[in-house]
Design brief:
Two copies of one chain form a homodimer.
Chain A: E1 2-3, E2 6-7, E3 12-14, H1 26-38, E4 43-50, E5 63-64, H2 71-82, E6 87-93, E7 109-110, E8 114-115, E9 123-126, H3 129-148, E10 153-158, H4 164-169, H5 184-202, E11 207-215, H6 225-236, E12 242-247, H7 250-253, H8 267-270, E13 281-283, H9 290-298, E14 304-307, H10 309-313, H11 317-322, H12 337-344, E15 377-381, H13 385-396, E16 400-404, H14 413-418, H15 428-439, E17 443-446, H16 453-459, E18 463-466, E19 470-472, E20 493-494, H17 496-500, E21 509-514, H18 520-530, E22 534-539, H19 554-563, E23 567-569, E24 572-577, E25 581-586, E26 592-596, E27 599-603, E28 606-608, H20 611-618, E29 625-628, H21 638-651, H22 656-664
Parallel strand pairs in A: 3-4, 3-14, 4-5, 4-6, 6-10, 7-9, 10-11, 11-12, 12-13, 13-14, 15-16, 15-18, 16-17, 18-29, 20-27, 21-22, 21-27, 22-23
Antiparallel strand pairs in A: 1-2, 8-9, 19-28, 24-25, 25-26
Helix pairs in contact in A: 1-2, 3-5, 5-6, 13-15, 13-21, 18-19
Chain lengths: ~675, ~675
Amino acid sequence: VAIGPVTARNRFYQVPHCTGMGHLRPQAVAALREMKAAGGWAVVSTEEAEIHPSSDLSPYPEQRIWDQRDLPALRLITDAIHRHDALAAIELVHNGNNAPNLYSRLPPIAPVSMSLSSDYPKQARQMSIEDIQQLRRWHRDAAVRARDAGFDIVYVYAGHLMTLAQHFLLPTINQRQDCYGGSLENRVRLLRELIEDTKDAVGQHCGIAVRLAVDELAGSEGMQASEEGSAVVEMLADLPDLWDVNVADWSNDSATTRFVPEDGYQISYIEFVKSKTAKPVVATGRLNSPDLMVSLVKRGIVDFIGAARPSISDPFLPNKIKSGDISEIRECIGCNICVSSDSLGVPIRCTQNPTMGEEWRRNWHPETIDAARTAVDTLVVGAGPAGLECALQLAQRGHRVQLAYETAEAGGRVLAESRLRGLGAWLRVRDYRMQKLQQHSKVQLFPDNTLSANDIAELDCKAVFIATGAKWRRDGIGRSNRKGIQSPASPLIYTPDDILKDENLPDGNILVYDDEHGYLGGVLADHLSHQGHAVTLVTSASIVSPWTVYTLEQHRIQARLIDQGVAIYPNLVIDSSTDSSVLFKCVFSGQPTELECAATILVTERVSNDELFHELRSRPAVNHHIERIGDALAPGLIADAVFSGHLAARDYQATQHEIEDAWYKRELPALTPW
Amino acid sequence: VAIGPVTARNRFYQVPHCTGMGHLRPQAVAALREMKAAGGWAVVSTEEAEIHPSSDLSPYPEQRIWDQRDLPALRLITDAIHRHDALAAIELVHNGNNAPNLYSRLPPIAPVSMSLSSDYPKQARQMSIEDIQQLRRWHRDAAVRARDAGFDIVYVYAGHLMTLAQHFLLPTINQRQDCYGGSLENRVRLLRELIEDTKDAVGQHCGIAVRLAVDELAGSEGMQASEEGSAVVEMLADLPDLWDVNVADWSNDSATTRFVPEDGYQISYIEFVKSKTAKPVVATGRLNSPDLMVSLVKRGIVDFIGAARPSISDPFLPNKIKSGDISEIRECIGCNICVSSDSLGVPIRCTQNPTMGEEWRRNWHPETIDAARTAVDTLVVGAGPAGLECALQLAQRGHRVQLAYETAEAGGRVLAESRLRGLGAWLRVRDYRMQKLQQHSKVQLFPDNTLSANDIAELDCKAVFIATGAKWRRDGIGRSNRKGIQSPASPLIYTPDDILKDENLPDGNILVYDDEHGYLGGVLADHLSHQGHAVTLVTSASIVSPWTVYTLEQHRIQARLIDQGVAIYPNLVIDSSTDSSVLFKCVFSGQPTELECAATILVTERVSNDELFHELRSRPAVNHHIERIGDALAPGLIADAVFSGHLAARDYQATQHEIEDAWYKRELPALTPW
């Protein structure tokens, strides 16, 4: 498929996505992009690349193309992509008021004077006509540098509510009185000029792509695909060489399965695009399923299957489709752990693909793993995310694996949590692994199997991996209260484990107390109120499920709970309970609040189920390798558990030195004088 | 003064403090530390230095001494400090559950299994005896590396509630049943061993310092100086070579003037220390005043005058005292802008010292500035923070400066805001500059002077700097609402400018609406309620003054407002008003809330006062340099305004190329294979 002067070898297109690596970790990001190209993506894009120090996203490490000195690092990326005959795309950006410029210290700029998008109490200044001319020059110069760095496709980026080109488009923001404000034609002017400039500068060598959010998903309060969204595409029609279309803001484009379970959820917004342009179109929206992909191309809705998250979950998705190994695809569960890494400014992680972000540092490959030095008999106890992943990778390495678990059905916490409202897609973590384990000649599964230390000793396996998970505390001890509940009236108290086991709750008000601050407290409140319970959510945080800010879900969670009538009490720490009420104290003032309830569910901390581990370790006779993994080692996210299981399988039989190499491998600043 | 085997040349001691640079910006941090040494500090310390990947504070760039490869960067620092005959100290640390290990992916560790200190839903695991032995080995190895990197003093760090050595001390955290838990002797064991190990490893060459928080300022709920705090010092007495004592947590150690206005506020907690040890003692607590310093040494309370923030505000404080230039000292205003930079993970900034963090990148020196290429007549319009700083630096460069301002008294917004409750110390920003301007032979001050564009044209200055500030919007437009208030009943509406001008407020409930999220909304609510008004604070944020989380003040602000009876309504955006009430909508659900009030103060956005600038620029005849600075260019913090004024004075007469050099100067990752 031709994209201006360049040609993509197939229809799989990795659209720009963040990695939490960017300009800080050039070798790591090059290896990550190379894996995508090796996996069959015909186009592999960078994250957004700041074109100028007035678009400085520090401390967040996106890509950077401020000047010539950025080119060697970018060249690592293009060389890596070209080694596999893929096209390298770069997403040039000026972030306007989304860039606080905390490093460069330049005053941020915007169509009008306005607050930064972050909470820093500083405003962007309104751009003058000279500023706009200067911006165009910066963009043009960056395009030339991008070409020189070897990129085949250069983006003009108007999406995610994060870029100047889009800010100028939107009448809610752009209240200018000059030729860049007012009519749609005026508001489109900057975007048109940036495309024209880029074509003029590098259009002979590079395809020019436009990434446009055609709908803000805010109804008539924002841009709509049926109104100005399509008008913009129609006005610019064949000017760019490719349309990469999506919805804004980022939380809508990268919606989680918890709130938007349908794969391909952006189709209804973007299906008009092909009717307005003769140029190729790429779109996204969690396109995991090959059937859906074929249908989208056949129906003439898109020319390219775009992917960010599915390409993270499975970099080899295109090759697997090509070779017909559909069942091998590691499907994205739509949890946004990948996004959370970027939100935190650390290298990208993925629940499904524990090798993501480890391509360079650990030299991990998502599809291959070193054969065992000596194949041995191994035992994995527990079939949650850590145990399943560990068992699978041990088997792939050639070890014989016995996987024993207490329950009839495998999955552990993933199985349990997937029954909660919105988390159904998370079961893919288990299904992908179980399907492979069940077929694996080296693997024996032992469901309904509770092993004692004696049993394990008798099995005489060379290596035992204890993946027995963790249980929630029942005493109230947590981040905000290390003493626990005073005088607890125990009949009132439940833990998330009780709910996950479908224990019956009494009638009356159910109080969910969240001192963990992850997702579970909010999920339980949602689930129980949806089931018809009267629910009150009390949390020591100021908002519901604060960690989910990083996964772009927090505002949806709180909105849904409010809509369902859940009473929300923030800023309260549990203190004591009676048989009909719980007493809390304000985290700021210590002022008491007493709430009546029929039951209280404590989402506080967890205790690892490590009795078996300690019993095995205490046996003088046992010289075998005994290791805890996942929540049994340290309770964390499902992604942490999968990684822990994967790591243990990779590291088994490695020397301490080999293991430590990966901790210490990092990219250090050059100490050469500037 | 001897510190074990090394000797400090005077009693000025820069204790460890963060810079937001750390391992990411080695050249910048070396230049910063060198400036302290050049300014007369006998000891210059690093920020905390992670000893191992299991203490990985990513994305926050503190110092790092994981392995040999960190030594070249650390050597830059020690060489820089030694060039000025100062001693270089390094603060070794293991952060326990304060380290989320988001880069290294190692499971965090703690005395007991417990939540991370951040909101990431992952727990640290309880350290085994083997883990403790390993920790001691890591610490010992790091001490040897520190010595090899040229450090003269090596710290064992038990403070700020951020380190394992302190976590073991505290019974609220350390509930261990083994020889490291229980009795105080057991809880001190790890700290004692770390000191012994460090002495044993490097004590021949290096002084061994202990940084200990002797009081948690939590009464009997935490460690108290009068109880276990002094018992710990007594038990370890002469084991370390130096005691660096303070209070925990960080928000108490680095208290702002807004809440703790007294300089030397830690003295009552640490004054016992000298009675328990024969070793030298250093302490801090905003020790700005030479009189206080002398008294502390004379009274035998400390041997060293410790400083973090005063050394940031004035790196040359020791030299100025030595030379008797007391009035030249640029006193710290205790605003914690320095801390906010570290909280954000970006290079350190300072309200009083705009050169802080710019030593390497811009080659700025806090005490000297390049002479003008050609000294000319300049005019500065406005005597707020930007105008004062610009005028002062222009004069220092040798230009003739006329400083005209509309009011009788100089200071602009600093003067106005300093009248609000708690912000009195901020007036030092004006006083330091005015005192120097008034004495400067090149400067003429014109108070009570409103200049028109015609007046300015007649003055015929070569350069005009417009520092006319900004005014607060009265229409409700802000970050959460770009349409403003619908049908505003104007008699109700006030802006912060009205309050700063002491406009009389009506009786009845005063509603402060904060859509800015900086400090001012919270300050106004505090100020007015303290004056006796009934105050309601409504904010589009989830907490009061969210940006102040970065300055470590947020919890104090919200606690004080609650204590003063201010009603707080979070998560609301202004919608419309009547003549007796305001209607808000929930940011999550859109649900309405109507609040009765006698007056509403809108803290939303500001509009630059740039009419004069635009009028001057539109005159065809004027070829002179005309530049906006500070809030007149882009409203921001006082620190941003001071920087803007300083930058304009430095950059005046520079070429665009020279100006741009500083934007692009940065430390890039080495691309060499690992």
